[in-house]
Design brief:
Its EC number is 4.2.1.24. By secondary structure, this protein is of the alpha/beta class. The protein contains 11 helices and 12 strands.
Length: about 325
Amino acid sequence: MKKSSNSNAFPNVRLRRLRTTPAVRDLLQETRLSAKDLIAPVFVQEGLKKPEEIGSMPDIQRLPLSRLAGEVERIMDLGISAIILFGLPSHKDAEATSAFDDRGIVQKSVELVRKQFGNKVAIVTDVCLCQYTTHGHCGLVVDKKIDNDRSIDTLAKVAVSHAKAGADIVAPSAMMDGQVQAIRKGLDASGFSEVAIMGYSAKQASPLYAPFRDAAHSAPEFGDRCTYQMPFSNAKEAMREIETDIAEGVDIVMIKPAIPYLDLIYKARQATNLPICAYSVSGEYALIKAAAMNGWVDENAVMTEFLTSIKRAGANVIITYQAKKMAELLSR
């Protein structure tokens, strides 16, 4: 019989040798999650007397200001060193004046956390107008249309007020053109050149935000947000948004949502050396939670796989409503 010319082409390669035991698999694990990779979202509602459960987000609560320090302490005890604050004001108007009030709910929350914990926790603040406006849009509205340029002036005022309260990082999520540049100019002019900007650089117009809008009472009164948030079909446009934020001086790039847009996280990682944040949004959380509550999936296993995949795609940090649960699991 004639000897095959390919008989020595392939040595006895068996990749399964690298998976034989848990110890070997752990030794060779390429992507590792840490509690330090996670940012925990916190909802604080003005005038609230006791925590309120959020129906569409089981195990997540709106907190009164009096409970904020205890929540941050629990987060820090789990090894998480960053929070992102979302405020729910008692007063809303067309100009979002509560958003830049120095005694507003976010401003008071930042001051409290900074006084209680000093620099042991990184404080990120969401800079948007939807929770503070009567119409529920992320920018100011004139004749039922977003006025982009007036909106970015207001967003800059909001960011400065958060910085004055003690925020480390401001995170504009309104998807207004020029918002990063306007905020950078506002911060620098007010003496806050060391405050960083985490831009919601590629924020998709996604149905996965629905539970958040329930949590933050921020659903738009009319229309939708498709004129300023991105169409989920356009990866090239997303990269242009990211490039624009970088040109305007953003310090951290964010992609939101995370799991449906792992390709954008990967593309952004190839395109820039800036830190990348991925926001695993409320709908991602709710889908896992609902399936787990029905016994259809193992919540811990799916949560770990999803968050590891986000990091593997290229994210440095992840905002996730599963931050506490994931950190607890990692500590075992």
